[in-house]
Amino acid sequence: ETGVTQSPTHLIKTRGQQVTLRCSSQSGHNTVSWYQQALGQGPQFIFQYYREEENGRGNFPPRFSGLQFPNYSSELNVNALELDDSALYLCASNGQGAGANVLTFGAGSRLTVL
Amino acid sequence: QQPVQSPQAVILREGEDAVINCSSSKALYSVHWYRQKHGEAPVFLMILLKGGEQKGHEKISASFNEKKQQSSLYLTASQLSYSGTYFCGTLGGTGNQFYFGTGTSLTVIP
């Protein structure tokens, strides 16, 4: 059983640029959620995707957008990057049944905006 | 809606015990506990679903008081491997949004 994989692991962008982060969910999991974790803080919910539809969104502006594909993998896109977007971006997947509420996290993509 | 944890940080010597508390201003129907080691992804420890329920994972156990909207994590005879940041969390909002607590940094020293 493969876990959640994210790419890239690290990247550096400049203010105003756009970035796409990718996530492959754990085998058998059909729900993907994205979190932003600033240094020294807890992860903050960005949004969740279920069956290719956004299924909940946290307090993030529209320049944060996402996609989920038929194979349940997902992308997080951030436009017009700001310095405060520098953070670790975590992807988590969960499935159905007994383990539906258990999140399995990827190792994250660390974004630095200069 | 973010749960509040206390203490913010704690340093223990190997073999000592610790308690981490989590409280919410909103009604809690379930509480999750995760541990995140430095530079790594959060890892699921346990979930508590019923008021008063207790669970254990290795020498780590937890309780959940639904009426008080509180949960506590108990670490017994701590080991070096217990070091990390512990987060409680709860589901809420639409689409099963997961809200992490403020976090507690635990450091176990020899």
Folded structure, characterized:
The complex is a heterodimer of chains A (114) and B (110). With 114 residues, chain A is an all-beta fold. Helices cover 0% and strands 50% of the residues of chain A. Chain A has strands spanning 5-7, 10-13, 19-24, 31-37, 44-50, 53-57, 64-68, 74-78, 87-94, 104-105, 109-113. In chain A, strand 4 (31-37) and strand 5 form a beta hairpin. The model of chain A has no long low-confidence stretch (mean pLDDT 91). Chain B is mostly beta strands and 110 residues long. Chain B has no helices and eleven strands. In chain B, the strands form two sheets. In chain B, strands 2, 4, 5, 9, 10 and 11 form a six-stranded mixed beta sheet that branches. In chain B, a hairpin with a 2-residue loop joins strand 6 and strand 7 (60-65). The interface between A and B is medium-sized, with 25 and 23 residues.
Give a quick rundown of the structure.
Chain A has strands at 5-7, 10-13, 19-24, 31-37, 44-50, 53-57, 64-68, 74-78, 87-94, 104-105, 109-113.
Name the structural class of chain B: mainly beta
Task: Tell the overall outline of chain A.
Answer: globular
Q: Work out the helix count of chain B.
A: 0
Rg calc of chain B: 13 Å
Question: What would the average pLDDT of chain A be, to the nearest integer?
Answer: 91
- The ordered H/E elements of chain A are EEEEEEEEEEE
Helical stretch tally of chain A? 0
Q: Mind telling me the C-alpha Rg of chain A?
A: 13 Å
- Span from first to last CA of chain B? 37 Å
Report the biggest beta sheet of chain B as strand number plus sense, adding barrel if it closes: 6 strands, mixed
Q: State the end-to-end distance of chain A.
A: 38 Å
Order of helices and strands of chain B: EEEEEEEEEEE
Dominant shape of chain B: globular
| Quaternary class | heterodimer
- Overall helicity of chain A: under 10%
Count of beta strands of chain B: 11
Spans of chain A of at least 5 consecutive residues whose pLDDT stays below 50 are none
Average residue-wise pLDDT of chain B: 88
**Strands of chain A, count:** 11
Largest interface: A-B, 25 and 23 residues
Largest sheet of chain A: 7 strands, mixed
